[in-house]
Design brief:
The chain is mostly beta strands and about 325 residues long. It is built from 4 helices and 26 strands.
Length: about 325
């Protein structure tokens, strides 16, 4: 579980399931994790509105009825917690696969007329509060993230108002939130209230400090990069940790794999990562290109003892690291008798 990274009145971290419990292809809403940095604002659809401004030809304000009148898109996608916002080395394994419905942000922005100079969308939510570390506190007027327009131009970024076929729950962003498939959940701003088109990145603490990974470049050791696209990752669902298996009896090692890019494959090790075998990865489905994919591998233990299963997914950027990263390989220890 992610450690509390600061003292915040109203901080909510709710991680309801462990890896072996993530058996459903579409995660039931009750099992979807909740992270609220500054509490949960109380809002209602009747007086909700979304402002769209900045580098647009026609600033607009949408009410909830106008949002729902737009063409409805339904998307199934991985929803993954980025983990500790100050430490990129800690994997949390907090991931779900959810069906979202709402309006495509690309279509919404097209109606406002995005200017050629715009490069980013700044998305703001209604949640606000005080962040602190015990010795220093800062008041935050709103939770704000930014997204490059190049991602929005690809489509399937939603202003979502439904989750698994029902209205968003209060803790999940009711009445409307952003959903950015292929990006970590921190970018999917809840309780959405404003979108601003801009030429540069936003100056929010959540874009300049939290959720920024070290990326030394051009001689600058302090350079950082935003936590946007999902890295290749996999999760072993079965067998569960500490399971007891029997010599000579085949067992299916299976789980889920995902990436913000093109998933290339998944390898399985039964000896802690010394030797690897290719798992069977289900075919990509164009209608579910943002969803996780099932992998499996049949293993028959020949001898009693303790074993460690490891799953390692790979995409165009390479394979999961063995340790020291938010997408480090998943390890499951079992016993054979």
């Amino acid at each position: 579980m992610m450690k509390p990274f600061m003292s915040i009145a109203g901080l909510i971290l709710d991680y309801p399931t462990q890896p072996h419990e993530k058996t459903a292809r579409v995660t039931p809403t009750r099992d979807v994790f909740t992270v609220a940095h500054m509490g949960v604002p109380q809002m209602n659809a009747e007086n909700w509105s979304l402002e769209i401004g900045g580098l647009v030809d026609t600033p607009r304000t949408l009410d909830f009825a106008a949002l729902k009148a737009l063409p409805k898109r339904v998307i199934e996608s991985v929803h993954k917690c980025a983990g500790d916002p100050l430490d990129a080395t800690l994997p949390t394994r907090q991931v779900t696969n959810v069906q979202w419905a709402g309006a495509d942000l690309r279509d919404v922005l097209a109606r406002a007329g995005v200017r050629d100079s715009a490069r980013y969308v700044w998305a703001s939510g209604a949640d606000h509060g005080v962040l602190g570390d015990g010795g220093h506190t800062v008041a935050i007027a709103e939770y704000q993230k930014d997204i490059p327009l190049t991602r929005i131009a690809e489509g399937n970024v939603l202003i979502a108002y439904e989750m698994n076929g029902e209205a968003l729950g209060v803790a999940h962003g009711y009445p409307a939130r952003l959903i950015v498939p292929g990006y970590y959940g921190t970018n999917s701003v809840k309780w959405l209230t404003r979108l601003e088109l801009a030429e540069a990145r936003a100056a929010s603490v959540f874009t300049t400090f939290f959720y920024n990974d070290p990326a030394p470049m051009n001689g600058d050791p302090e350079a950082r990069r935003p936590v946007w696209r999902l890295a290749a990752e996999s999760l072993i669902t079965a067998p569960a940790a500490q399971a007891v298996l029997r010599v000579g009896i085949a067992v299916e090692i299976w789980g889920w794999a995902w990436s913000g890019g093109e998933l290339r494959g998944v390898d399985i090790s039964s000896d802690g990562g010394m030797n690897w075998s290719a798992a069977l990865l289900e075919d990509a489905d164009a209608s579910r290109r943002h969803a996780w994919r099932r992998f499996s591998y049949s293993w028959t233990p020949a001898n009693p003892g303790n074993y460690e299963f490891v799953s390692r997914a790979a995409d165009g950027d390479g394979a999961q690291p063995m340790n020291g990263a938010r997408n480090a390989v998943h390890r499951v220890g079992i016993t054979v008798r």
